[in-house]
Design goal:
Number of strands of chain A: 20
Strand order of the largest sheet of chain A: 9-8-11-10-12-13-14
Largest interface: A-B, 88 and 88 residues
Radius of gyration of chain A: 26 Å
Helix content of chain A: 40-55%
Oligomer: homodimer
Distance between the termini of chain A: 20 Å
């Protein structure tokens, strides 16, 4: 294991100060052009050296005819050339003194025997010139904190805390938009492709030391270095959570993965055991992978698995209770002391069991602050699951009851939603216990946007929230185990 | 079983031509007012008779001091009064000749022995006057096709095909907004509350005969009339799909449901067996309940469980293959004939296994029309799962490659997305095989809106799509069984 991030073979790839770019041109019909456009659109502050046989400038960057002509050996070469000229280009880069490369080009091992021979040659060149290579057959790296993005989709999402190592390039590029919907973004995301040289384990080691990365996400179709993976995961997981989605579990998934990157998948149970032993939290889908990252990256860890559910509707309460039960969480009864504190806030029709069901919110501020505060202050409650419902019509009506006229109520309602979201989010910080929201509001509604903006994870439906809570509990267990051992 | 919808005790509740309204006033602080406001906001075309002790008009409707003063016996009484005066009011309604009531008021059986006594009295009155009663402790009915909505949240969603019977009022009101996000809406939704008289079985029988209802959704915390439920479901399911989410399965869910509506839940396995025997498709969450309704209400039924996956990214393909495998679906190999037809459309880097992985879309029209057409024309493929990815930047670039300038490309890109969405959606109609989309686009993006608008179900993530496909297969099995028996 490396002990500082600078030692990582990925360091100068994810933090390249200068890049040679092979395959970009002024024609929009070449893929390389799109990659360079993404880099440019992201505001990359480093030096870019397009290498092009005929052009003097490429996308306004001064171009060079041959890599030998570059004024320096840049940190990184990005190669998006036809397969047959990749190895020659790599060799020229090596001679020039370039020590890092992203090979985007496909057509290697994943394409059968001829491709495998090309990949063997690529590896020989890499060893000869001591080059660190990501790929081939990948999309490279996106590090929003350095405005680096070698993929073909511009990253319009925020700088974030999710470190991703992915055996699928799509699950880098197509998550820019997806994650931004939750206010999330990547710290750094690697598309590892065929992993000819650097693999998912190298990425984990890099991300473990990356200061922007709070949680490591893995998309896995097959692990090549099982032993190294276990060692790395075991060393990292007590300090930084690792979440993995393994898509090779079923026979169908295995066969699809094989034709994708040529990775050999193992039986589902094998991976399950590996993950458990190494302290890796397993997700069952891509959606769940990032659900788990969201809570692990934002919420304090719970002391135990006791959940208290707060709702003002019986159905969502029952559904959440059921989802918690299925996820292996427990719902303790509230103490007499807590019941007494809650009494003033619960209408006669309400229920002060667990779930705490208000039936309706007498006062939305109570729902967003006073009640959850009481619930979090009860020693035995480790996690609060809260059902978020703030229909603008209902908030406006409540304001009108307080004497506002129609126009003022319409103006004040969004402000009230913002206030409430902030109040609730403030509690996980002051009480140091996780709060997870669930809701059926559309993601584009004001209340959802505000709650997320204020830092609370909120999921559509109770089961995603309960499973995310379980991921927190599971990771708290990983931490505890490591302290004990 | 009833044989015409007019025979249903719910008919004049869900299709009331006139309503007496108890508990609404001109004060925004009473819940009844909100219910009447919802009804009004929905444009209810029938006659409304607010009954109020002192006001001459209520929300601009002419008000009556006592039910005895009404000029006729309206179809329905909606009662949102304090618990203690509900039964007297009901009795007065009975005497007046009103034969149908929605009792929204809570505080009955769900509140212990005193409440149970009140509920027994309510039932006695109902029997004496031959009244059909929904509730108490419910939100009543929403029938967008008749502009009826007795709940406290205005329904701004469309008229739809999902018929819901719910043991939670929230799962009526809070689904207006949720469903509208997918272009879906209710045909009619019933919140059954304590089911003192009419229960979920009555709702199923009504919805079975409702011409607007294509699929029946059930939210269940506990079934009271097991035998009747089985009989009704067995009779209905061969003709109209029934999907159920049962929230009482885990110990925690059971206990929460009990305190909510006083329904006694049974063991999970019992419900599982009942559902299977009666041809009811079981959903594992509210999200899944409506996912299943969506595909069952829009897609033709598959002949078998063979799925072909189309993608232009390896990761989503592998994840979808895995999800299909876990859902019990199979991915057949493509025939030589189909492979030959596909060849012109697949780039060298692509893979023509199953998943069909284009690696990138050479031409988006091929992806949305020519390729899925070939895949659906292959006899053995029963269902098409298609990964939808149309980033506006990439579409615009493709247009620029075709010679459009920047401005024209930006103008044409959304039109192209609309065209593609229509082409793909046209195929499920012409080929009579289900197409299910999956994507990681944000729900508010143009491509998602368009695909949904054109009638295709599209889910975030492969696992929801695969499980929805499995629901179609399961329901096709229910149909087949009924034909054979």
């Amino acid at each position: 294991m490396i002990t500082s991030i600078e030692e990582s073979p990925l360091y100068r790839i994810a933090n390249a100060r200068s890049m040679a770019f092979f395959g970009a041109s002024n024609s929009i019909s070449s893929m390389g052009t799109h990659l360079l456009l993404s880099l440019k659109a992201g505001g990359y502050p480093g030096v870019v050296y397009p290498v092009h046989r005929t052009e003097d400038t490429v996308l306004d960057f001064k171009a060079y005819r041959r890599v030998e002509d570059l004024p320096e050996a840049p940190d990184l070469a990005v190669i998006v050339l036809p397969t047959r000229i990749v190895n020659d280009t790599l060799e020229a880069c090596g001679k020039k003194g370039i020590r890092n490369a992203v090979v985007v080009t496909a057509g290697f091992r994943e394409m059968g025997a001829d491709g495998a021979a090309l990949e063997a040659e690529l590896k020989r060149i890499a060893r000869t010139y001591h080059m660190n290579i990501v790929g081939p057959n990948c999309l490279g790296v996106a590090n929003p904190h350095r405005h680096i993005n070698t993929t073909f989709i511009p990253n319009e999402g925020p700088q974030g805390f999710v470190g991703l190592a992915s055996q699928s390039g799509s699950f880098v590029t197509q998550m820019f938009e997806y994650l931004s919907g939750f206010g999330l973004g990547f710290s750094t995301a690697f598309s590892v492709g065929n992993e000819a040289m650097l693999d998912i384990v190298d990425c984990m080691e890099y991300l473990a030391l990356c200061p922007h990365t709070k949680v490591i996400a893995l998309y896995i179709e097959g692990i090549r270095r099982g032993r190294a993976f276990m060692d790395a995961a075991r060393a990292i997981s007590p300090h930084k959570p690792i979440v993995a989605f393994y898509a090779g579990g079923s026979a169908a998934g295995k066969s699809a993965g094989l034709s994708h990157t040529g990775a050999l998948a193992g039986p589902d149970e094998l991976y399950d055991g590996m993950f458990r032993q190494a302290g890796v939290i397993r997700a069952q889908s891509m959606v769940e992978l990032f659900d788990f990252c969201w809570v692990l990256g934002t919420m304090p860890l719970p002391k135990g698995k006791s959940v208290v559910i707060q709702t003002h509707s019986g159905g969502p309460g029952a559904a959440a209770a059921d989802a918690c039960g299925r996820a292996g969480l427990v719902l303790p009864k509230l103490s007499p002391d807590t019941l007494e504190k809650l009494a003033p806030f619960i209408p006669a029709t309400g229920s002060v069991g667990n779930p705490v069901d208000l039936t309706f919110a007498k006062d939305y501020s109570d729902f967003y602050y006073k009640i959850p505060k009481i619930l979090l202050e009860e020693e035995q409650n480790d996690i609060l699951l809260v059902y978020l419902l703030s229909p603008p019509q209902v908030i406006e009506r409540a304001l009108r009851q307080m004497g506002y006229d129609e126009k003022m109520a319409a103006e004040q309602a969004p402000k009230l939603v913002e206030l409430h979201a902030g109040q609730l989010a403030g509690l996980f910080q002051s009480k140091k216990k996780p709060i997870i929201g669930f809701s059926f509001h559309r993601p584009d509604t004001h209340v959802m946007e505000q709650v997320i903006l204020k830092g609370l994870p909120v999921f559509q439906g109770a089961d995603r929230a309960a499973r995310a809570a379980k991921a927190l509990v599971a990771y708290a267990g990983v931490r505890l185990r490591s302290v004990k051992s």
